[in-house]
Write a structure and sequence with these properties.
Elements: H1 33-42, H2 48-59, H3 63-67, E1 74-75, E2 80-83, E3 86-90, E4 93-97, E5 106-109, H4 112-132, H5 153-166, H6 168-171, H7 181-192, H8 197-204, H9 209-215, H10 217-236
Antiparallel strand pairs: 1-2, 2-5, 3-4
Length: 242
């Protein structure tokens, strides 16, 4: 425009939409319940990596949200995690930024299993902090490298890919499964357990429940069919006493 090749900005008046998830269509990147249970059993032994993977499966957090967790964001007494940061990367630097959407800032609940798992991780991390000393870079971060630096997301993805390749047979996997599939699996478990779509949407931090419905449309359809069969079976079951 400065050179006067055009007289006005073609983007003026454009409406910028909020960043939302566009993962529509049938999701293959998911584990069934048996596979998810097998995965958890393969992660029983303590390690920082194992703790991250189990927490992702238990909470449905995005990997960036998980790696952006601070100890000050976890309330062990109330059993909650406040998610308000995500680990991001730009210009060869890792840093904490605000989450993906406004609804991504949320508080989620964790059960006693997750609480004990995180307490164990904190104990092990404290031992490592004593060894590293003042060189430890990020004392409030839940997940770091063994020297206290950021836990590289690309490294986590590579570690998970290698882990899945090594355990494909035990997991009976015949499809691609990435770390984001842990989030899909968490949602699937909640859906099949009969949890309300609004609650799942808030739990996952989706921009709206409409997005959740579209992302998991095929799963939700299966749940509705099962619900209809449950009602029909209850009403027409012979010799049933009401």
């Amino acid at each position: 425009m400065k050179q006067k090749y055009i007289v006005e900005n073609p983007c003026s008046g454009a409406i910028w939409k909020e960043n939302t998830e566009v993962e529509y269509g049938k999701i293959e990147n998911v584990l069934d319940l048996k596979q998810a249970q097998t995965l958890m059993s393969l992660l029983e032994e303590y390690s920082c990596f194992n703790t991250i993977i189990k927490l992702l499966l238990l909470t449905g957090m995005r990997s960036g949200e998980c790696l952006g967790l601070r100890w000050s964001s976890i309330d062990f007494d109330k059993g909650t995690i406040f998610i308000d940061r995500t680990l991001s990367y730009a210009e060869n630097t890792w840093y904490l930024s605000t989450p993906k959407t406004s609804r991504s800032v949320r508080t989620i609940s964790i059960d006693s299993t997750a609480i004990e798992m995180l307490k164990k991780h904190r104990e092990e991390q404290d031992k490592q902090k004593e060894i590293v000393g003042t060189a430890w870079q990020h004392p409030d971060m839940v997940f770091t490298s063994c020297t206290g630096h950021w836990y590289d997301r690309s490294l986590l993805n590579k570690q998970f890919k290698r882990f899945i390749e090594n355990h494909k047979q035990e997991l009976e996997l015949n499809h691609k499964f990435t770390i984001h599939g842990l989030r899909h699996t968490n949602a699937a478990v909640l859906l099949y357990a009969g949890e309300d779509i609004e609650n799942i949407s808030a739990h996952l931090g989706h921009a709206s429940s409409d997005i959740t419905s579209r992302v998991y449309a095929h799963m939700y359809a299966e749940v509705r069919i099962r619900m209809a069969k449950t009602v029909s079976g209850a009403l027409f079951e012979k010799n049933k006493t009401l």
